[in-house]
Amino acid sequence: MDEDIQDLVSPEEKRAVPVDKLAGVYIKIRDARAKLKSDYEAQDLELEEQMEVIEEQLLEACKSIGADSIRTAAGTVIRSIKSRYWTNDWDSMYDFVRKNDAFGLLERRIHQSNMKQFIEENPDLLPTGLNTDSRYSIVVRRSK
Q1: 3-state secondary structure the chain
Q2: Whose CB among 1, 44, 62, 101 lies 3.0–4.6 Å from 79's, allowing a Cys bridge?
Q3: What whole-number distance in Å separates Cα of residue 69 and Cα of residue 80?
Q4: Is residue 3's pLDDT more than 70?
Q5: 38-47: per-residue pLDDT in tens?
Q6: Is a pLDDT exceeding 70 seen at residue 2?
Q7: Residue 136 has pLDDT above 70, yes or no
Q8: pLDDT digit string, tens, across residues 84-114
Q9: 76 Cβ partners below 8 Å, 6+ apart?
Q10: Which of these, 6, 35, 19, 33, lies nearest to 138 by C-alpha position?
Q11: Looking at the predicted structure, is the pLDDT value of residue 37 above 90?
């Protein structure tokens, strides 16, 4: 661990740390995390591409022998169909869901920024059961 960081997290050191130093160390940590993430993502992408090549070969092997699974010493290969659904016309989709009482077709989550704006514009109009968690957060911008 970087010495600056170690000084800040050392439990035996009880002195107040200057905000300037905290901000500088925060930026160092953020930069280190960004580099780690970038390196990880590049390596992960490479591995993902290799897996996709192998998956295509395994799909072809299943197709060529007409099998949905192939047992091997290394593991069992299973071919299945994965479907994904989406719409380009949300108004029609909402009408369809309403008319068919098919609300289970939609995921249950609240659009965070739209809800925030709604509450700001309608502070006395809140749905029953709405939970909220608000807390301060910190943003540190690099000096120019």
Answers
A1: CCHHHHHHHCCCCCCCCCHHHHHHHHHHHHHHHHHHHHHHHHHHHHHHHHHHHHHHHHHHHHHHHCCCEEECCCCEEECCCCCCCCCCCHHHHHHHHHHCCCHHHCCCCCCHHHHHHHHHHCCCCCCCCCCCCCCCCCCCCCCC
A2: 62
A3: 9
A4: no
A5: 999 999 999 9
A6: no
A7: yes
A8: 999 999 999 999 999 999 999 999 899 999 9
A9: 69, 70
A10: 19
A11: yes
What token pair was written down for 51? 């897996």
Under 8 Å between Cβ of 141 and 30: no
The pLDDT mean for the chain works out to 91
Nearest to 75 by CA among 54, 49, 44: 54
